[in-house]
Amino acid sequence: MSCSSSDIISNLLSDVLEQILVCLTVQDAVRTSVLSRKWRYIWTTLPVLIFDDKFCRESVIRTRPDKLVMAIYKVLLLHDGPITKFTLALENLENSPEIDQLIFSVSKNNDIREFTLHIWKGKPFKLPSTLFSCQRLEHLSLCSCVFKPPPRFKGFTRLLSLELYEVFIAGDLLSSLTSNCPLLEELTLHCSTSYDYLEIGAPSLKYFECEGLVRCICFRNTPHIEEVAIVLKGSRNQLGFNEGEISNSLMTLCGTPMVDLLILDHAYVKCVAASGVRERFPTYLARLTYLELNDICFGESDEVSTVLYFIRSCPNLDELLIRAFDGATAAIDTVSGTKAEMEFIKLLLAKSPMLETMGITLKSMEVAEESRIVKELTGFRPASPNVVITF
């Protein structure tokens, strides 16, 4: 058999070879250049360049972040062809002027579709204006950056998903950005800075996740939103804001009638309780099929009553997940057979005629006590004839 016929891989079409190299790390892709003359420059046309922690672990210069950035810059200089996906997310990556050059090299490529930049050390990185010229962006993920576009920037017209982790961006700018991304479907915000008011107006938005100190979240022109997750950052004893001050404005979530998945934390539940909204809660949860409530303290009567009200407002609920608060300041331990917990479970069983499965996670305890609790729970009379309780 001749050499040409035996080297099946090298004789594949260039597009196929390129797809093979895309599955490798950048280092391994570069190493293929020594295989043969045909392989020498294939890696330089790769459309996907990922410099993440795996790249850092395999790099011989991983202990010098500055040299690592320069090595990445050399890769970009040798690159010849379109770049559709670029990721720079290294654990030891620090804010440095060299990153400006990297972004400039990537942004001058008009084919970039996915861009990820995660800075972990040093002060937040101010995004260069060149990034905002990438009008073909479909996915953008940023961490520890300063988002301040030039005045002429109007938005990313093709953006589908946006992730902002500890990104410094003014509230009015964020509102303007979402409304000027007509195709945006997924929006994720994790921030330490507080916002008095956030207006989300992406007409194609389907998924929204927010973790931070936000006094008011208002949804405008979001008819297609389906999944919402809100965590009001702060400890149970110190939320960082006054519950009564924000409770009413937070209820603008009621303006999202299409939601079928909702995830909330104890702070949101406390705000609902403080607002007295139970007297005027609309049927905005009629489409909801999945409800998740986290860190609920069964020793707090207002939290329990609010949870019950949520449940009563979800006529089409298919799945309910409640995580009990078990911190040192909890009024009672997590699911441990207290009267409040047992009464709550009894009520759920009695008022859920379509219930099929109830899963209960018990606190670690003596076998005898566990047996007592299980016996009591299985003795409750459920409204559903087909319910199965699992422990």
What does it look like?
The chain is an alpha/beta fold. It has twelve helices and 17 strands. The protein has an eleven-stranded parallel beta sheet. β7 (161-165), α7 and β8 form a beta-alpha-beta unit. The protein starts with a helix and ends with a strand. Mean pLDDT is 78; it is low at 1-5, 246-251 and 328-333.
Task: Please give a quick description of this structure.
By secondary structure, the protein is of the alpha/beta class. The protein is built from twelve helices and 17 strands. It is 29% helix and 21% strand.
List keywords for this structure.
two-stranded parallel sheet, elongated, 17 strands, about 400 residues
Helix content: 25-40%
Rg (CA only): 26 Å
Strand order of the largest sheet: 1-2-3-5-7-8-10-12-13-14-15
Main sheet properties? 11 strands, parallel
Beta content: 15-25%
Element order: H for helix, E for strand = HHHEHHEHEEEEEHEEEEEHEHEHEHEHE
Low-confidence stretches: 1-5, 246-251, 328-333
Give me the oligomer status. Answer: single chain
Content-based structural category: alpha/beta
What's the mean pLDDT score? 78
User: Count of helical segments?
Assistant: 12
User: What is the overall shape?
Assistant: elongated
Kindly state the number of beta strands.
Answer: 17
End-to-end Cα distance: 64 Å
Q: Would you spell out the secondary-structure blueprint of this structure?
A:
Elements: H1 3-6, H2 14-22, H3 26-31, E1 48-52, H4 53-58, H5 65-78, E2 85-89, H6 98-107, E3 114-118, E4 125-126, E5 139-143, E6 145-146, E7 161-165, H7 171-179, E8 186-195, E9 198-200, E10 207-214, E11 217-219, E12 227-232, H8 243-250, E13 261-265, H9 266-275, E14 290-296, H10 301-312, E15 319-324, H11 339-350, E16 357-359, H12 367-378, E17 388-390
Parallel strand pairs: 1-2, 2-3, 3-5, 4-6, 5-7, 7-8, 8-10, 9-11, 10-12, 12-13, 13-14, 14-15, 16-17
